[in-house]
């Protein structure tokens, strides 16, 4: 879906905002604290059904107000669609799709796949492996929605096996769940590997284009290098005693890692702040490229505060690239940081929680 309009009430600093969004690149400018990030967050909330900045929904409700509401509408295959979320301090969230109350927004495939670059998201690069696995699993689901089930089935088998371990079960009693874990584990590893394969070369290319000079690379590192289900089950059996001692399953893709490197060293450990930012940006854009080329969906790309660390040449390269990948919103404190580019179809100025131009 191409988003055409955003409207929000009592969302963060915005009492009321009604905006039309450009089809290609929209720039949001304003001083520090003016409300640029809040505007991107509102758009994300409307498209995804949650915040990209906090797990506490109520934080997004304007101070001293009981309810916030965000609405997004646009066109997909010539048809108009609308998404809305109401956030109530007391009652939680209510979702609407095309005017009808729904349980969540996930199921609506006309929604735009939404990607967000924000400084807070650096945790994805710097933090523990679990966040990168979860992100990769979401990317798998965005590329191949039907494969979402492999991840769920694996998590279910893992929970069951861990529960048995905690009760001190014998290998014979664990047999069924060992097989389930192995079957779904192999499927999950295959999905994750295929997803990484779709972005490998774009990640390297975009990374170099944006200024990661030392041959950036991405790969999937598995602790469970196995041939087939039987081999997987064997490995589980061999670890049975130590798993019982620890109380959890130590073999399987829930321990795997997405390794991002520059100059053959892990960016997570050795990268500078700037290199980590560029790595994150390259990863997200490479994913958008895969989504654009492998699905019929066009991503909505929200880039917060990305210009300040790039030089003028790279800023222009970035806009060149992103406008081919999807619909883009980009924030900047300094208007001069935004290149003069033909793909920019709208510039929005914000001040003190209101759109002023
Ligand atoms: N729930 C809320 N209700 C009202 N105002 C809020 C709420 N949450 C945050 N704010 C206000 O929003 C403002 C910050 O807005 P935002 O983060 O969008 O700024 P920004 O334009 O992105 O600034 P910067 O350039 O520094 O990133 C702060 O003044 C903050 O007090
Ligand atoms: Mg901001």
The chain-level mean pLDDT equals 94
SS content category: alpha/beta
Poorly predicted spans: none
Radius of gyration from CA coordinates: 22 Å
Kindly estimate the percentage of residues that lie in beta strands according to DSSP: 15-25%
CATH architecture of the largest domain: Up-down Bundle
Quick one: how many beta strands?
A: 15
- Into how many domains do the coordinates divide? 2
Distance between the termini: 25 Å
Could you say what the CATH topology of the largest domain is called?
Glutathione S-transferase Yfyf (Class Pi), Chain A, domain 2
Summarize the amount of helix as a percent range. Answer: 40-55%
Ligand names: adenosine-5'-triphosphate, magnesium ion
The major pleated sheet works out as: 6 strands, antiparallel
Order of helices and strands, N to C? EEEHEEEEEHHHHEHHEEHHEHEEE
> What do we call the CATH homologous superfamily of the largest domain?
RecF/RecN/SMC, N-terminal domain
Q: How would you describe the shape?
A: globular
């Amino acid at each position: 879906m191409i988003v055409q309009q955003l409207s929000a009430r009592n969302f963060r600093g915005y009492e009321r905002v009604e905006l039309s969004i450009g089809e290609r690149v929209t720039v949001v400018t304003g001083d520090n604290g003016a409300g640029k990030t809040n505007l991107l967050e509102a758009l994300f909330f409307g498209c995804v059904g949650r915040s990209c900045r906090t797990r506490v929904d109520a934080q997004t409700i304007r101070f001293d107000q009981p309810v916030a509401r965000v609405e997004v509408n646009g066109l997909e295959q010539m048809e108009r669609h609308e998404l809305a979320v109401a956030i109530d301090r007391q009652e939680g969230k209510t979702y609407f799709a095309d005017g009808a109350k729904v349980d969540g927004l996930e199921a609506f495939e006309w929604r735009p796949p939404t990607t967000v670059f924000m400084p807070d998201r650096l945790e994805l690069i710097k933090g523990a492996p679990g966040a990168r696995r979860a992100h990769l699993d979401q990317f798998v689901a965005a590329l191949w929605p039907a494969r979402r089930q492999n991840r769920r089935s694996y998590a279910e088998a893992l929970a069951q096996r861990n529960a048995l371990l905690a009760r001190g079960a014998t290998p014979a009693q664990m047999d069924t769940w060992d097989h389930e874990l192995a079957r779904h584990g192999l499927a999950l590893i295959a999905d994750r590997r295929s997803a990484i394969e779709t972005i490998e070369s774009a990640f390297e290319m975009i990374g170099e284009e944006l200024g990661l000079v030392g041959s950036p690379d991405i790969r999937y590192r598995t602790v469970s290098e196995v041939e087939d289900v039987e081999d997987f089950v064997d490995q589980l059996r061999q670890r049975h005693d130590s798993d019982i001692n620890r109380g959890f399953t130590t073999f399987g893709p829930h321990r795997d890692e997405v390794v991002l490197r520059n100059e053959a060293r892990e960016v997570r450990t050795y990268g500078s702040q700037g290199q980590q930012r560029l790595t994150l940006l390259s990863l997200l854009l490479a994913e958008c490229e895969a989504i654009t080329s492998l699905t019929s969906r066009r991503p909505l790309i929200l880039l917060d505060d990305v210009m300040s660390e790039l030089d003028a040449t790279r800023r222009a390269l970035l806009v060149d690239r992103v406008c081919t990948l999807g619909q883009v919103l980009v924030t900047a404190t300094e208007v001069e940081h935004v290149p003069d580019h033909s793909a920019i179809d709208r510039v929005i100025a914000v001040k003190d929680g209101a759109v002023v131009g």
